[in-house]
């Protein structure tokens, strides 16, 4: 995705990876959503999430591989919101687990113990970017791979007008 959409890839990195934490949405056994925190890591061009092996979010992902990752919004200031939808694949290869543990130790400052965590790589299906547009006081929205990008100008403090196509983040595939 970052090769074909460099601007969106940069925003995704700034909003999801750089802060060091994100929100993970999984599906509970009863079908309701679960929101948890996680520390993302990009290694070899792939997005990785590790979890305690017995954690409820890891059990959720073993049962249903679908995942939603969401940037953390920390205040009332208008900050971009990024949502990534996809699915996970569990990684069990000892060399990959060791490389991941070493990468976490050098980049995130803590040392996962191989055999004591579950590691998932994330296959990205869709990314949605939503940001405040100061010019229109509305929303700037971009969706990949749908290739949709538009502004919805504010008509009142709590409502938006019809979408107007723009081209600020996405590049034509």
TrEMBL record:
Domain of life of the native organism: Bacteria
Pfam families: PNPOx_N
Domain Pyridoxamine 5'-phosphate oxidase N-terminal: start-end pairs: 16-130
Region (Disordered): 152-173
Gene3D superfamilies per the UniProt record, alphabetical: Electron Transport, Fmn-binding Protein, Chain A
Protein name (record): Pyridoxamine 5'-phosphate oxidase N-terminal domain-containing protein
Organism: Actinoallomurus iriomotensis
């Amino acid at each position: 995705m970052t090769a074909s959409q460099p601007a969106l890839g940069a925003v995704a990195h700034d909003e999801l990876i750089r802060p060091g934490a994100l929100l993970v949405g999984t599906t509970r056994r009863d079908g309701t959503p679960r929101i948890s925190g996680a520390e993302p890591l990009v290694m070899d061009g792939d997005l990785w999430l590790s979890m305690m092996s017995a954690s409820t979010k890891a059990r959720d992902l073993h049962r249903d591989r679908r995942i939603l990752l969401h940037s953390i919004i920390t205040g009332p200031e208008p900050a971009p919101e990024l949502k990534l939808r996809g699915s996970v694949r569990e990684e069990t290869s000892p060399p990959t687990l060791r490389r991941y543990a070493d990468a976490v130790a050098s980049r995130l400052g803590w040392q996962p113990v191989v055999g004591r965590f579950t590691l998932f790589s994330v296959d990205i299906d869709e990314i949605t970017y939503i940001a405040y547009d100061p010019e229109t006081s509305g929303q700037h929205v971009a969706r990949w791979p749908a290739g949709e990008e538009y502004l919805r100008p504010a008509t009142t403090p709590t409502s938006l007008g019809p979408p107007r196509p723009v081209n600020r983040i996405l590049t034509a595939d």
